[in-house]
Amino acid sequence: MTRAKEIIEYMESLRNEEQRQILMGFFKTGPGEYGYGDEFLGLKVPQTREVVKMAGLDFPLEEVPELLMNRWHEVRLCGFLILVAKFEKLATKRLENNAEAVKKRDEIVTMYLQYAEQANNWDLVDLSVHKILGHWLLLPSNLSPHPDLPPIGEGDSLQMAYKRQVLDELAHSNNLWKQRMSIVCSWKTSQMGDPSWCLRYAEIHLHHPHDLMHKAVGWMLREMGKRVSMDLLRDFLRQHAHEMPRTMLRYAIEKMPERERKEWMSIR
Q1: Among the listed residues 86, 136, 140, the one whose alpha carbon sits nearest the alpha carbon of residue 113
Q2: Exposure of 193 by Cβ count < 10 A (0-12 exposed, 13-18 middle, 19+ buried)?
Q3: What is the pLDDT of residue 162?
């Protein structure tokens, strides 16, 4: 029996029917809802994190897809959190430029992108993407861009152009959760002082039709303002507040003084 199968059997043994019903309602799994068809065991996130700890950092990377492809939401979350734990271990300051660490980080990123559609609800995205893709954006990588890919901006390296291509493909896909990945990954880049990713994908998703994206973009703009520069946030709002969905704008300005929030909301 593989270690992945052992984890699956253990998590299935923790099934909680009462909690399962609560989660199925909370994550909108009914017909016509964004999480339609998702299946839950009824485990709380701390329980899943404990399983990740039990699995350990030596859990075979090649077995993670068995978790990611599982029918149960919590098992897929376990798989994504194992990738997070592995990536973070390889992304410390000491290992940023270590050749073997770079190679292994790239393997994790490649797997994450390959199985991105398995992160088919907002929590699976929000608990993983910034810690893997978001961090990778600011780290050395050997993943090769297409040789004909032009740099996007003046002074861009080919590697930076490739990373933007990866996120652009997520942003312009027809999958809501991949679209959410492209903006929520900027949580990490903003934490590390780089506002460019947030501003780029906030603008791309400005007219997105889904409320979940309105909330995500507003949230990331708020974090960018808090972590990097409120003046940058105000500059963005001066350009776009008049066209932003109300929910997006409200989320973006949450950390501003009340009087200023009222001024921005009056623009809509």
Answers
A1: 136
A2: exposed
A3: 87
